[in-house]
Amino acid sequence: MDIKSPTEAIRKRDSCRTFDGRVPDEKAKERLRTFFRVNTRGPFCNAIRFDLIDMTEAEMAVMNVAAGQLVRKLTLTGGAIFAGNAAAQFQPAAPFAFLPATVK
Question: Residue 99 falls within a domain, yes or no?
Answer without folding.
Answer: no
